[in-house]
Amino acid sequence: MWGNVTTLSIDNLPNIQSGIWYFAITAYDTSDNESDYSNEVSTVIP
Q1: What is the domain partition of the chain in residue ranges?
Q2: Rounded-to-integer distance, Cα 27 and Cα 36, Å
């Protein structure tokens, strides 16, 4: 659906609270197989 995506922006999270947020993602191949979780990344929301 999206091809090779190496960045992603997450906008408009409802009721976002300040603090440290952690994210990890998975991907699907064309046969609908899901990958393991990616490395975790974090960001600070003031």
Answers
A1: 16-46
A2: 8
